[in-house]
Amino acid sequence: MLDSALFLAAKDFHLFPADHPGLPQCAGRARGHDPATCTDRGKHPAVAFTRNHSTDPAKLAYWFHTQLHNIAVCVGACRGPAGERLLVVDSDRPGAIEDTAAALGHKWLPTMRVTTAKGHHDYLWAPRAMKLGNGLGSLRGRFDGDVRAGNAYVIAAGSVHATGVIYTLEDPERPPAQAPDWLISALQARPAATRRTPVSGQPSGNLTPLVRFVLESREKERNNRLFWASCRAFEANSAPSPNIASSLLEAAVRIGLPEAEARQTITSAYRSRAAR
User: Fold this and answer.
1) What's the CA gap between 200 and 36, in Å, rounded?
2) Is residue 200 part of a domain?
3) Are both 164 and 125 inside the same structural domain?
4) What are the φ/ψ torsions at residue 102 (nearest 5 degrees)?
5) Is residue 215 part of a domain?
6) Mean per-residue pLDDT of the chain
7) Are residue 178 and residue 230 in the same domain, yes or no?
8) CA-to-CA distance for 26 and 23, rounded, in angstroms?
9) Please, which residues have CB within 8 angstroms of residue 227's CB and are 6 or more apart in sequence?
10) Are residues 166 and 245 in the same domain?
11) What is the CATH number of the domain that holds 81?
12) Do 269 and 159 lie in a common domain?
């Protein structure tokens, strides 16, 4: 693990420790996250990563030699040779980004790639003037995966997935390529307007405003608003039914939260309510 961290840090990737599935309990420290009940192991930051990331060998040795941690890359802290910003394309299946590029009339060119348990992470340099986030833009619904940029992170090569799969760098000598113009344009484009349909399960009247509260979340506040809405929903229902959780879950997935992350947030809210 330390060798992998030192290799990446030597290429100026800023790293921090994340949960490792071999630990008896999740090391994640995110707000609204309950380490004792976490089932999505190996992915959660073990520190406040936007402030606590490093390329210093001594600090990396403390994190990855004296302790059991996965390695994570603080995407927003990384810069390319000309000051470019890091962009990571996360394909949920092998060939997902290649298929999307082909469907749009383009060819996906080789770049730094890490294979994951489901697909792969492609590392790219985006223009430093571009302030990208995690939104898919016009690729939403056309790409089986996500993107990570700005205030975001990805689990790095050398880490271990909960299934036992090791994140592996395909070609250690290949650096990130420049992000193609068509990809940058697609990520900056506004997604096509879609008509909101009522969530399934016919939520009760007192729950509907909370579902709307989740649906109206902006990108960087989705998880916090989902946690708050879930807490309010469970507090208002002394005997919570599956309908409450399913309505909130469907709303969260609709605005772009990964289903596993949304489920964990709702579960944490329920346990918090139960504890009180």
Assistant:
1) 31
2) no
3) yes
4) -65, -40
5) yes
6) 87
7) no
8) 7
9) 31, 32, 265, 268, 269
10) no
11) 3.30.2250
12) no
Q: Are strands 177-178 and 145-149 parallel, antiparallel or unpaired?
A: unpaired
What is the enclosing helix (H) or strand (E) of 149? strand 145-149
What residues make up the domain containing 235?
208-275
For residue range 6-41, what is the model confidence (pLDDT) as tens digits? 999 999 999 999 999 999 999 998 777 788 888 889
Six token digits for residue 232? 């309010």
**Per-residue pLDDT tens over the stretch 100-141:** 999 999 999 999 999 999 999 999 999 988 888 888 889 988
Show the tokens assigned to 110: 């080789």
> What number of CA atoms fall less than 13 Å from residue 123's CA on the CB side?
29
**CB 134 within 8 Å of CB 150:** yes
Verify that 219 and 108 share a domain, yes or no.
Answer: no
The pLDDT value given to residue 238: 53
Residue 225 has pLDDT above 70, yes or no: yes
pLDDT of residue 148: 94
Q: What's the predicted TM-score (pTM) here?
A: 0.71
**197 lies in some domain:** no
pLDDT at 46 over 60: yes
